[in-house]
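hey so i finally got around to running the thing on that chain from the lab meeting. sorry it took forever, my laptop kept dying and i had to restart like 3 times. anyway pasting the input first so we r on the same page abt which one it is
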Amino acid sequence: MDYPFISHNQDFLIEVNTAFDFNQSNPLQFHYFFRYDIRITNEGEKEAQLLSRKWFIKDARGEVRVVEGPGVVGNTPRFKPGDSFSYSSFCPLPTLTGEMWGHFVMKGSEGEFLVDTPKFKFQVPAEFIDVY
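ok and heres what got predicted. didnt touch it at all, straight out
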């Protein structure tokens, strides 16, 4: 899988891929459904566990929603050096485009620290937009 959105920080690599889900969307009700895949890799030499995440979701009107909670998709993975964890989730938006960014709260032997994600974008592909 190709991951076009990438960040490196705190010895972690965060890779994100996004896609529009036509079947779950309803443009007549301004409901656009996007999926995203994330791979988190520990590139350092210390173990850590993902405790929680915080997301900022911005639609094309500039409105920002904040979503936060424990773990990711019901998991709080532990990372030994070199370990990766991948998961998929979704983001509904009221607009044709948007973006999302945030961080994961990790806990290592020296305490908690934040791992920032890249800012990643959502966009309805041109072939799904009617041109009049």
